[in-house]
Specification:
CATH architecture of the largest domain: 3-Layer(aba) Sandwich
Radius of gyration: 26 Å
Shape: globular
Strand content: 25-35%
Number of strands: 27
Number of domains: 3
CATH superfamily of the largest domain: LmbE-like
Distance between the termini: 47 Å
Length: about 575
Amino acid sequence: MTFLISASIALCLLYLIYRTYTSRYKGDFSNSLWSEQNWHDKTVMVLVPHQDDEINLAGATIKNLTNNNIHVIVVFATTSDYHDSGIDRLHEALASAKILGVPEQDIVFLGYCNMPMVTKTQHFYNADDNLVITSDQNLTETYALPEKPEFCFTKTGKHKLYTKKNLREDIQAVIQHYKPDLIFASDFDRHIDHRAISLLFEEAVADILHVNNNTYYPEIYKGFCYNGSYLGRKDFYDLNLSGVAKAEGEFINDPNYDTDFPPYLWQDRLRLPVTRSALSRTLNCNLIYNALRAHFSQGIIHNAKRIINSDQVFWRRLTTSLSYQAQLTISSGNGQCLTDFKLADCDDIYALPCTFSGTWIPDATDYAKRAVFTFHKPQTISRVVLYGNSTINSRVLEGSITLSNNFTIKFGPLKEGSKATFVDFPTQNNITTLAISLEQLQGSAAGLNEIEIYSTLQFPSLLNFIKIMVDDTFAYEYLITAKTKEVSLNIYSYGSVSDYKLLSINNDDFQLQNNKITFGPSFKQALIRVETKTTPDIYDQIVIRRVSTVQILLLKATKAMDMLLHRIEHITKNKYQKWTKGYPY
């Protein structure tokens, strides 16, 4: 009897272990994003500071791209050599990229050191452009792997000194070399390297956009590697995978702002659906977890429950502003920041919370307080976007925009925290100059961080998709219990998506009416599809499935086993790092 009981328990445990490796999302769900014809010859670049940030920023998106045979270039700015040489982490990046479907030839190492510090509290971003930094490994030049050198060495046969200027130039060079159609780049979050790379990336983009007669305008999306990802909510084991959550409590860098970066509003984020292999009920059968495993030295699997979500979040940065190709004249102060592509700068990226800068503040004795853009040829203008200063309690209350045809429009007050204020007006043609005057200011730091000028209110995107949500959650295979009598469906769309139609694909005991599904007592499964009316090849399809009490209990037991295996793996890796390297991750 004892043997039978022991054998039964052992079989149950083995079955639960088996389920942890097979509990993927199932069913006939799909989305048309990345599979459209316009993507067949496009290149996407993912640019991040450290090895593993590619997953924190866009892991599920990278896999979605490679699944659809879209060319992906992943660029790492540093060698992540804080604890040791960084060689292990470079090899790990190649292994992880292979899991995500990116071949070695499409991985680029810029080869700069991790946390290049001038002093213990000053990052080289806030130092002189040409100051040479000595790394923790006592190095002063770029490097990567012997068999895969850093970008500058592959192009010139020479290493580069660790300077802010060289890193910015290499970021610019790698973008101009590959000329990606779309770029995902890390934004300003908690890690000081992330902050530096974000701002240097924007400086590099500005240099590209300022090139005379520039014709290259990549589509750019920036996102956080920490909040919402590495430091996101631990919600992986919810019944249905949740989306990226807005930072709360201890994870808010500064409660004065809606996100980690003052110009961004959470409601304006872009949400991208994830690939099928990133959707599972357990970690052990999730492709993103396997990619995180490849970054063995970081033990980043311990944050997998935060990183893996049902969407990925970004903010778009337009590159088509007419301001970058115009001549700028200001009445006083430093106006260079008005067209540097940086919505906010930071004089001390080491500080937490940060004090943001990068503001054109006219002199107190300047009664004109004017910035004038002169265009090399007549332009059509319909919109001006003004980003005010980031300092709370200081802002532009009133101002005016005057065009060369004498058209004038008032604006103000600007939104606080350097958020965008849109000034739209009837289209004006044959404009040769545009003048912005600040007429009423509040506080000593009132001014402008950036000025964008557009000829149209329509900004086409390579991303054109539609996604079904249950309430506010991106749905794929969505499970409900017997207690659920109805769910509300919402539609998320992005790009050139017109009116849509929502329809049911199968027959079962449910009714779909006015974006609400009502379930009958014998309901088992619903296939729901949404299509755009004018372009049926832009679509989304989901599965809604009812699970029994027994199935719920089995799923909970499977997740408990998965948690146990995950914890054992985490502790083992942690101990191994301490014993072999002398530090935990």
